[in-house]
Write a structure and sequence with these properties.
Strand order of the largest sheet: 3-2-1-4-5-6
Strand content: 15-25%
Largest sheet: 6 strands, parallel
Number of strands: 6
Structural class: alpha/beta
Length: 187
């Protein structure tokens, strides 16, 4: 598989310390995402970080949104600066872009698309947690926006391993190429 690194970006999504805590063991995902980040940086592929966050009080959270509304009260009390902190093991370097989204997809409520267009990015490499959340939603929206997509299957994780297996084995291949971090590092 030939990849044009000049039009490619690695998305590191929802690798926030608070979100990593939902996984029974986050060590493996942090190691794999760190490997992907190192490979991207070595090849001069932009690394773009995506975090989910809200304004104080969570005014962006609609009571119609089943997922976020269940947590609105607790989210409203959180220190958002702490909530959006990316785990130090995969943290951005000075100058790397971090976008804040307001929903599950990396595109919704963020300026990600503007950044990608400005950088002439046409191919997205997806990593992050959860496979059934940000990765699935971002993949679907990116496909509708005509991006080329690669999902790093071991650079994603989900609290439900079976859901991860079904998505990466059966659902994602319809719209994306699937590689492991090791396979991508050899391209």
């Amino acid at each position: 598989m030939e990849q044009n690194k000049q039009n490619t970006a690695l998305l590191v999504m929802d690798m926030q310390t608070a979100i990593l805590a939902i996984l029974p063991d986050s060590k493996e995902i942090k190691v794999k995402v760190n490997e992907a980040i190192k490979h991207a940086r070595n090849r001069k592929i932009p690394v773009i970080y995506v975090v989910v966050g809200f304004r104080p009080g969570g005014p962006e959270i609609s009571m119609n949104n089943k997922g976020f509304s269940a947590r609105k009260e607790s989210m409203a009390k959180m220190n958002m600066e702490e909530w959006v902190k990316i785990d130090p093991s995969v943290a951005p370097l000075k100058g790397e872009i971090t976008v804040t989204k307001r929903r599950v997809s990396a595109f919704t409520g963020s300026d990600l698309e503007v950044v990608l267009r400005a950088m002439n990015i046409q191919h997205l490499i997806l990593t992050g947690i959860a496979t059934s959340g940000v990765v699935l939603s971002t993949l679907r929206e990116a496909a509708d926006k005509d991006y080329n997509i690669t999902v790093l299957s071991d650079g994603c994780a989900d609290s439900d391993p079976e859901v991860h297996r079904v998505l990466t084995g059966k659902v994602f291949p319809r719209q994306a190429d699937l590689l492991t971090v090791g396979e991508w590092s050899k391209i």
